[in-house]
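Follow-up to my earlier ticket, as requested here are the two runs.
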Amino acid sequence: MSELTKKILIADDEPHMLRVTELSLKKGGFDILCAHNGREAVNLASQAKPDLVVLDVVMPELDGFAALKELKSNPATVAIPVIMLTSRGHAVAREEAASSGAELYLTKPFSPSQLLAAAKRVMGVP
C-alpha cells in the first residue's frame, strides 16, 4: 500500500450491499475496510483512522445514526468525513444526518459511479 492510498471504511449489514459498495470504491484505487454493523464500524474507525467512512443507516447493534454520533463525539475520529447510505430518503433522516455531522446522504439504490464521485469529492481527491 502506498502512503498516498486513501482508506475507506464501509459499514453495511447486508453482504450484497457491502460487496457492491466495496467494488464501487475499489475502482477508485482506495483501500477498503469492511464492518458488518455500527459497533464494529466505530471500533475499526478508531483503530484504523480511515480517510472516509461510508455508513448504512439500518444496521444491528448500533444503527448508522448512532455510529455517526459516536464517531463525531470521539476526538480520534471527529475529523473523518462520513457518507450515509440508506434506503430511507425522508427529509427528516437527511436533516438528522446533516445535523449529526454527515458530509453526504445518498439513497439506495445508488449508481456505483455516483458513489465513487461522491467519495472522491468528500476526500478532496481528483
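Run two:
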Amino acid sequence: LVKISQEVLHIHQTYLVLSSRSGESDRQLATVKQKNSFLPYKFKIDSIYGRYDLEGLDIAAHSFTLTRNGQIAAIVSKRFFSASDTYGVEIYNGEDHAFVLA
C-alpha cells in the first residue's frame, strides 16, 4: 500500500512516503525529515493529511508518539520479552492505518 524511499543528498535523514495503491502509484503522501535535535528520534512529517511530529520517548527507541496538530495520532511501543523486535501500535482518530504504519 505504501513505499518508503530515502533521499540521500540531505544533511538530515529525509524520506519520501509514496502510495502504491492501484490508480495512484508513486503519488507522494509525505516527506519525513529528521528535526534538528541532539536526540536522533525526532522527525517532522509534512503530508497530504497535515503536519505530524514523530518523537522517540526514550533514548533506546522503544516507544514513540505520532502527533498531528498537537493531538496524538498513534503510540508505538516495543514489546519486551519476545524472541524478536515486536512493536505494538495504537492508532487514534480514524487515521489512515497504512500511512501511520509507514
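The only thing I checked on run two: The first strand starts at residue 2 and ends at 7. Let me know what else you need.
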